[in-house]
């Protein structure tokens, strides 16, 4: 007998969950536990660093191993009498908000692994030793750390498929649709919250580098690009190093400060994007040059 399509997907959810719990076990109970133990002995890196690398992986592991996986297993064993998983996933969805913390911390965590592997040979050796074990399947710590980041999108995909394949009169239809809606909200919530938090954080750092000039500080601004540029002075045929910040609404033309008291740059000119013109110059003597003109002034600039 051909298994119904929706059961196949529910089984795939269970199998991937089992594999995922094994991966979380490796991250929390092996990598985290062993690295923390060595850090406490003062042999590798500061304890704080290990905690920052693994963020709230322990809570995530406990939740999946002690709650979600067993609930799914019970459901699948009982499938022939009671073909449903929607209710269990509804219980799961609110807890997925825990991932916000982990995902938000992920880039920083990977950076710390790289940094401390260079700084501390004993740390690097311990990580390498664990990576050699069979349980790691020849994959790096960073690779395993990525797994939780990818798990929520995976739930979303599997559940979408599941809802698509459910027969119209399935007893699980209402629950499954509601569960999908909840998962969708969590996925959106964590990504949006993280993106917004990072944007504000980065914006604040830029404002500090610019000396917090009040007419520039605005939380709705978005930094698009920044970098050094050469200003060409046609009068005395010289170039000088300047720095540009391009926001969604303005271009700031800045001069690096020699003595950095508080600010790194001084804003010399602000050109509103509204009405700004940029024109490339085809100058063979001086490559990569362009003109930027605002209402008051035109600048001749050269990129690297």
UniProtKB/TrEMBL annotation:
Subcellular location: Cytoplasm, Cytoskeleton
CDD domains in the cross-refs: RhoGEF
PH domain sequence ranges: 222-304
A Pfam match: RhoGEF
Annotated DH domain residues: 5-193
Keywords recorded for this protein, A-Z: Cytoplasm, Cytoskeleton, Metal-binding, Phosphoprotein, Repeat, Zinc, Zinc-finger
Gene3D superfamilies: Dbl homology (DH) domain (1.20.900.10), Pleckstrin-homology domain (PH domain)/Phosphotyrosine-binding domain (PTB) (2.30.29.30)
One Gene Ontology biological process: filopodium assembly
Superkingdom of origin organism: Eukaryota
GO cellular component labels: cytoplasm; cytoskeleton
GO MF annotations in UniProt: guanyl-nucleotide exchange factor activity; zinc ion binding
Cytoplasm keyword on record: yes
Protein name, UniProt field: FGD2 protein
Species this protein is from: Halcyon senegalensis
Phylogenetic placement of the source organism: Eukaryota, Metazoa, Chordata, Craniata, Vertebrata
């Amino acid at each position: 007998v051909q298994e119904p399509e929706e059961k196949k997907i529910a089984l795939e959810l269970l199998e991937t969950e089992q594999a995922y719990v094994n991966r979380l076990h490796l991250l929390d109970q092996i990598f985290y536990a062993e690295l923390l133990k060595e850090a406490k002995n003062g042999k590798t890196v500061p304890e704080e660093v290990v905690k920052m690398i693994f963020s709230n992986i322990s809570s995530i592991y406990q939740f999946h191993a002690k709650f979600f996986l067993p609930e799914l297993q019970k459901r699948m064993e009982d499938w022939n009498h009671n073909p449903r998983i929607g209710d269990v996933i509804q219980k799961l969805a609110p807890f997925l908000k825990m991932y916000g913390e982990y995902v938000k911390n992920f880039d920083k965590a990977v950076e710390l692994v790289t940094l401390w592997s260079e700084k501390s040979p004993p740390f690097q050796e311990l990580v390498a030793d664990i990576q050699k074990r069979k349980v790691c399947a020849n994959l790096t710590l960073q690779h395993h750390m990525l797994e939780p980041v990818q798990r929520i999108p995976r739930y979303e995909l599997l559940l979408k498929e599941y809802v698509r394949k459910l027969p119209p009169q399935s007893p699980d239809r209402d629950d499954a649709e509601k569960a999908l809606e909840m998962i969708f909200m969590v996925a959106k919530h964590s990504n949006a919250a993280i993106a917004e938090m990072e944007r504000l954080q980065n914006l604040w750092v830029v404002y500090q580098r610019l000396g917090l000039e009040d007419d520039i500080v605005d939380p709705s601004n978005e930094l698009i690009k920044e970098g050094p540029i050469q200003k060409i002075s046609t009068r005395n045929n010289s170039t000088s190093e300047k720095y540009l910040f391009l926001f969604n609404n303005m271009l700031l033309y800045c001069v690096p400060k020699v003595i950095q008291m508080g600010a790194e740059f001084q804003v010399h000119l602000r050109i509103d994007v509204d009405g700004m013109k940029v024109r490339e110059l085809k100058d063979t003597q001086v490559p990569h040059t362009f003109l930027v003109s605002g209402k008051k002034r035109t600048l001749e600039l050269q990129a690297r």
